[in-house]
Design a protein that fits this description.
Mean pLDDT of chain A: 81
Shape of chain A: elongated
Radius of gyration of chain B: 12 Å
Oligomer: heterodimer
Strand order of the largest sheet of chain A: 2-1-5-4-3
Largest interface: A-B, 31 and 26 residues
CATH class of the largest domain in chain A: Alpha Beta
Order of helices and strands of chain A: HHEEHHHEEEHHEHEEHEEHEE
Distance between the termini of chain B: 7 Å
CATH superfamily of the largest domain in chain A: PAS domain
CATH topology of chain B: Rossmann fold
Number of helices of chain B: 5
Number of domains of chain A: 3
Low-confidence stretches of chain A: 1-26, 211-218
Strand content of chain A: 15-25%
Number of strands of chain A: 12
Order of helices and strands of chain B: EHEHEHEHEH
Structural class of chain B: alpha/beta
Number of domains of chain B: 1
CATH architecture of chain B: 3-Layer(aba) Sandwich
Mean pLDDT of chain B: 90
Largest sheet of chain A: 5 strands, antiparallel
Number of strands of chain B: 5
CATH class of chain B: Alpha Beta
Low-confidence stretches of chain B: none
């Protein structure tokens, strides 16, 4: 009979186990005793099943098998191995076991098994056929190894790696954006040499931050937090700007255009608007909206009150707003400004993916 | 090179690259999605392209990269994370410029291909 990877040699060893189901034939004496002790003491759980009996029951198990599964030998013998399976056991893996038994081959599978108390463990199961001297299938052996720790470590490692990748990706993007801002500013102020020097240092700093981990990065950014951070320096006492918005989240890339536009609005307010005197106030609100083409928009409203009365758009306010206009156009957004007498009213709207 | 395509969803990076190309007398068409990039390819004869890999909302530059390859237009990938680029882009022999790289260097790298 063909022996597809089976364990003819080990059948001698196995058959030395003086259990009721096993008939010692050749491997006797001192070696047999040693083997018996090893089998009893090994931490590897081992069982044998008898495929010649209906439903292939377990006919031998060692002590490690009992302590791994929580069942006693009396409860184990006579059972089919499937009694260790449960609702979350992967049936594909079970299929591999079934196939191995059917074609009498050796297989190694990892599957989730259940103990007597209902707790689970990851079982690295190694199984294969044992033939007798005539080449006739006699037993199937199974060795079980609890690899739960390995599984947990793998999952944690995967998670940590994914997180580190995400953070590193974000940081690189942030520093690429900073490089762009410095270059664009340097160009607009006719100071490209200075801009380049600044950039070199900023990028060096960026590289030094690359290995830093921070689990605050989750793929989407809360708009409100970003808006507050951008505007915080312009309202150190926290009593001039009021914020209103729900927990809108959006992609990080939408934030850079909104953030810079708000920066330009705040700079303008400090020079000419509601932050240029003692009593002015600004209200900033934001929300998700849907336009008539069913596109999702992030809309940010800016309203100044209590500043010096306004007759017309201040002549010098142009440059910063031009940069904001350009950025928003690139993001297919709109930046509208209305110079009301009691203060500037502005709206930023840009399409976002949700 | 006379005219290049930029596919980049981050406006600052796109602007910076645009200026850097324009400094070298190259015309730029800047796009933010594969759909826009395809439209731009219909209207322009590009000599090269710079593609950001992740375009937000799960979109990648893969379709545009395929089309550029089909049209035999040289391009390079400008990304902060090649691990997320996907099998197709990893398997492609397009050069990768890691973000952050100064725009001038990106321009030089593309010129070296054309």
């Amino acid at each position: 009979m063909d022996n597809p990877g089976g364990a003819t040699a080990s059948h001698q060893a196995m058959s030395a186990i003086p259990q009721s189901a096993l008939t010692p034939d050749r491997f006797v004496g001192a070696s047999g005793l040693l083997f018996e002790q090893a089998m009893a003491q090994t931490r590897m759980a081992v069982c044998l099943t008898d495929p010649t009996i209906k439903d292939d029951p377990i006919v031998f198990c060692n002590r490690a098998f009992e302590s791994l599964t929580g069942y006693t030998e009396e409860e184990i013998l006579g059972q089919n191995c499937r009694f260790l399976q449960g609702p979350k056991t992967d049936q594909d893996q079970v299929g591999k076991i079934r196939q191995a038994v059917k074609v009498e081959s050796v297989a190694v599978v990892e599957l989730l098994n259940y103990r007597k108390d209902g707790s689970t463990f990851w079982n690295a199961l190694h199984l294969g056929p044992i033939y007798d001297d005539t080449g006739k299938l006699k037993y199937f052996f199974g060795s079980q190894w609890d690899v739960t720790d390995v599984h947990l470590a793998k999952a944690e490692e995967r998670h940590a790696k994914a997180m580190a990748r995400e953070v590193s990706h974000r940081l690189k993007n942030v520093f690429a954006v900073i490089g762009g801002i410095v270059n664009i500013t340097g160009r607009s102020m006719d100071a490209r040499g200075v801009a380049q020097k600044i950039n070199e240092r900023v990028q060096a700093l960026g590289r030094s931050y690359e290995p830093t981990l921070d689990d605050a990065f989750l793929g989407m950014i809360e708009v409100g937090q970003a808006i507050r951070s951008v505007l915080r320096p312009y309202d150190p006492e926290g009593d001039r700007i009021t914020f209103e918005g729900n927990g809108v989240r959006t992609e990080p890339n939408a934030i850079s255009a909104v953030g810079l536009t708000l920066h330009e609005l705040a700079t303008n307010a400090i020079k000419y608007g509601a932050l240029s005197n003692a009593g002015g106030r600004i209200s900033v609100s934001w929300s998700h909206q849907t336009d008539r083409h069913e596109r999702h928009l992030l809309v940010v409203n800016w309203k100044e009150t209590g500043g010096p009365p306004i007759d017309r758009e201040p002549a010098q306010s142009g440059t910063g707003f031009n940069i904001a206009d350009t950025l928003l156009v690139h993001s297919r957004g709109v930046f509208e400004r209305q110079w009301d007498r009691d203060g500037l009213r502005a709206q930023i709207s840009l399409p976002i993916k949700r | 090179m006379k005219c290049v395509l930029i596919l980049e969803d981050e406006p600052f990076i796109a602007m910076d690259l645009t200026f850097a190309f324009e400094d070298k007398g190259v015309e730029v068409v800047s796009t933010v999605s594969c759909r826009e990039a395809f439209e731009a390819m219909e209207r322009n004869a590009f000599d090269g392209a710079v593609l950001d890999v992740n375009l937000g909302g799960g979109e990648t530059c893969e379709e545009t990269a395929r089309e550029l390859k089909r049209r035999k237009i040289p391009f390079l990938l400008n990304t902060g994370d090649l691990n997320r680029a996907g099998e197709f882009l990893r398997g492609m022999d397009a050069p990768v410029i890691q973000k952050p790289t100064p725009a001038g260097e990106v321009v030089k790298a593309l010129f070296a291909m054309g």
